[in-house]
Specification:
The complex is a heterodimer of chains A (about 300) and B (about 250). Chain A has about 300 residues and is mostly helical. Chain A has helices spanning about 25-45, 50-55, 55-65, 85-120, 125-145, 150-160, 165-190, 190-200, 205-240, 245-255, 260-295. By secondary structure, chain B is of the alpha/beta class. Chain B contains nine helices and ten strands. In chain B, helix 5 packs across helix 6 (about 160-170). The chains are: A mainly alpha (about 300), B alpha/beta (about 250). The interface of A and B includes residues 214 and 295 of A. The structure holds adenosine-5'-triphosphate and magnesium ion. Magnesium ion binds next to helix 1 of chain B.
Chain lengths: ~300, ~250
């Protein structure tokens, strides 16, 4: 006899042990099979080929040669960049940042409002309210599913070439992103404090702003920072369709096959994105650490 | 007029019947202890009384009003006069103690104004009126926590957070208090303090008190009547003077 308090040898009524695995049904086998077929089928359709990759090396070498020409440090030649150009690129880079920042800010604000309206049961559970929630959810989905380049083309058509079109594009993109994830964060927080507020006579709106939003705040902040990182990366491409920022110059340089200058711009973009991501990551870590300390 | 009249109340979750055909009447100013084993349905019964949980069947009258027929506005007015202390306290985690107490005063703002956003001033202690902040500090004083006013609610000990929940209920200036194991996480001395605080308050201001407890002595000492629930049914409802501890212990079999 052992003196363990739990006697597992006891021939007790332990025939109610929970099953270790779920039984896998026939349908599930077919689902797995279908997945494998889909992988093969997709590779075929995507024309993915290692040969193609290998064949590209000669073009790649030429591109590298032109993108990184061997230039003397001193003296003027066809590859040298003037201060004027450098200033212009810097100005455009700053414009890109401003577009991304403004667009994200507006997107966060409107995205938050739409998230409030679309969160299940948050502001109400009546039938008209549920209709609103489903409609707004669909609207957010629309914002998210239409690719940002398509939005950019639409806005360039509506407000003309330039940064404004880009800002609007980023705003809509951010509304789609924040609208969805803000709603998820608010749906995920423990609802009992909100119930408690309602049980002392608060409205759904009171309970939302006094209990749900404060509890979801760390999540809302990190999502917003992610949205900004995404916007900075996305804003570069918008220039390709004329929606402002440094992407416009990049596009022009590629068209002129001025790969060396394009490389300079890509370097600048890299630096911007790198800095923004580092700062954002630092802030996100601060937010989560601040929460952990309290628990 | 009675404080509460419950008739044939039932509550089911899916096909699981938590409460079955419960009827009782509570007079104004009475103090009622609800006892019963874990999972008997005590919390569910309390939540039904203010429709935080919707009953499946039956009728409930609170101070004469058929609350199951109430629509949002009337329900809110009724709720604003009933203080509820939840078993899990239900404080808003990232906000200060003071703000959590001030939340108890949101209902009053709606009662004095029809403006849908009337509650906004009491979302946080920053924007609340001086009068409200003073009142909240007094409520905290009553549960001896005024020194923690600006501490975040999720950093409190279990007993402290329970007392904040009690202060929030007092903040409502309620005419009835529903308290779900209000002293469960307090040490014995604090538990007696808080129970007598409740009891004296209710007797002085003629507030109706309904509390659940796993402490049989508390039930007999602070309840004028004891109501027992067993397997979702009302199994005893009696004057506490005419009950022996043994009878109550039988309720847990
Ligand atoms: N939302 C829910 N969905 C399903 N079942 C629930 C729900 N809420 C409560 N129950 C069940 O109802 C029963 C009664 O729960 P209740 O919380 O009222 O018990 P209690 O008497 O307060 O117990 P305790 O003394 O442990 O607090 C339990 O079996 C519980 O699992
Ligand atoms: Mg309970």
């Amino acid at each position: 006899m052992t003196d363990s308090p739990i006697d597992i040898d006891k021939k007790s009524e332990l025939n109610n042990l929970p099953r270790r695995y779920k039984k896998i049904s026939i349908t599930r086998y077919f689902i797995y099979l279908a997945l494998i077929v889909m992988v093969i089928w997709s590779f075929q359709g995507s024309q993915f080929s290692f040969e193609g990759l290998l064949d590209s090396t000669q073009y790649f070498k030429r591109f590298l040669g032109e993108a990184f020409p061997s230039i003397g440090i001193l003296g003027e030649n066809e590859h040298s960049i003037t201060w004027k150009d450098t200033f212009r690129y810097t100005r455009e880079l700053i414009e890109t940042f401003q577009m991304a920042f403004t667009g994200t800010l507006l997107g966060i604000i409107f995205g938050f409002i739409l998230a409030l309206l679309s969160s299940k049961g948050l502001l109400g559970n009546s039938r008209p309210m549920r209709l609103v929630q489903e409609t707004v959810k669909a609207l957010i989905l629309l914002f998210r599913t239409v690719p940002d380049l398509v939005w950019a083309i639409i806005f360039v058509m509506l407000v003309g070439l330039g940064a404004f079109a880009g800002t609007l594009t980023i705003m809509v993109d951010t509304i789609g992103f924040c609208g969805r994830f803000f709603a998820e964060e608010m749906e995920d927080v423990d609802k009992s404090p909100a119930d408690a507020l309602e049980s002392c006579g608060a409205t759904k709106l009171d309970a939302t702003f006094a209990a749900v939003v404060p509890a979801a705040m760390p999540g809302l902040i990190t999502t917003s920072l992610f949205a900004f990182e995404k916007a900075i990366r996305g804003s570069v491409v918008l220039g390709l369709v004329g929606a402002g920022g440094i992407g416009m110059s990049l596009n022009a340089l590629f068209n002129w096959m001025a790969y060396d200058r394009a490389m300079v711009i890509i370097g600048m973009i890299f630096a911007l994105i790198f800095v923004v991501e580092q700062v954002s990551q630092y802030l996100r870590r601060k937010v989560t650490q601040n929460e952990e300390k309290r628990i | 007029m009675n404080a509460i009249e419950v008739k044939h109340l039932s509550k089911s979750y899916a096909d699981f019947e938590v409460l079955r055909d419960i009827s009782f009447t509570i007079g104004v100013g009475e103090s009622i202890a609800i006892i019963g084993s874990n999972g008997a349905g005590k919390s569910t019964l309390l939540k039904c009384l203010t429709r935080i949980t919707e009953p499946s069947q039956g009728s409930i009258n609170v101070f004469g009003d058929p609350i199951l027929k109430f629509r949002t506005g009337a329900l809110r007015r009724m709720r604003s006069s009933i203080g509820v202390v939840f078993q899990k306290h239900n404080l808003v985690p990232r906000l200060s103690v003071l703000t959590n107490v001030i939340h108890g005063d949101i209902g009053r703002l709606h009662n004095v104004s029809k403006f849908p956003l009337a509650g906004i001033r009491n979302w946080g202690q920053i924007s609340a009126s001086n009068r409200t902040r003073k009142k909240a500090m007094e409520a905290l004083e009553m549960v001896s926590l005024s020194h923690l006013a600006l501490q975040r609610a999720d950093t409190l000990s279990g007993g402290q957070s329970q007392r904040v929940a009690i202060a929030r209920a007092l903040m409502q200036e309620p005419n009835m208090i529903l308290a779900d194991e209000p002293v469960a996480s307090l040490d014995p001395v604090a538990a007696n303090d808080v129970m007598s605080l409740f009891y004296d308050l209710c007797k002085n201001k003629n507030i109706t008190l309904i509390f659940t407890s796993h402490n049989v002595e508390h039930a007999l000492e602070y309840g004028n009547k004891v109501l027992a629930i067993k397997n979702g049914r009302l199994s005893l409802f009696k004057d506490s003077n005419s009950i022996e501890i043994k009878t109550l212990q039988a309720e847990y079999d």
